[in-house]
Design brief:
Blueprint lengths: L16 H11 L5 E13 L3 E11 L6 E12 L7 E10 L2
Antiparallel strand pairs: 1-2, 2-3, 3-4
Length: 96
């Protein structure tokens, strides 16, 4: 028998605009899994900007599997288009 956490009803947090854009852009190409931001920790400037967000991660399996993760998203200026940024998930750490 697999152990499974029963999580509280985790509500989505309101991300600042720049973080919301980074989150949507970095997660849009995932299929079979959804992410919901629960807590925005903050950001650091280091080779671009890194954003730290705790997320609920739910798989589209039967039954769905939910876990909590810490997601680090990196934002770098696009080298070819001034004023445009590129976003990528730099790291994901499973919490529970």
């Amino acid at each position: 028998m697999l152990k499974k956490w029963e999580t509280n009803n985790l509500e989505e947090c309101n991300l600042p605009d720049e973080v919301r854009i980074a989150f949507i852009s970095a997660t849009k190409n995932f299929h079979g899994i959804t992410f919901k931001p629960i807590l925005y920790y903050g950001k650091q400037n280091f080779i671009g900007v890194d954003y730290a967000i705790t997320c609920s991660q739910v798989t589209e399996t039967n039954p769905p599997q939910e876990s909590l993760i810490l997601m680090i998203i990196n934002s770098l200026p696009n080298k070819n288009i001034e004023g445009k940024f590129d976003y990528e998930i730099k790291d994901i750490k499973h919490i529970i």
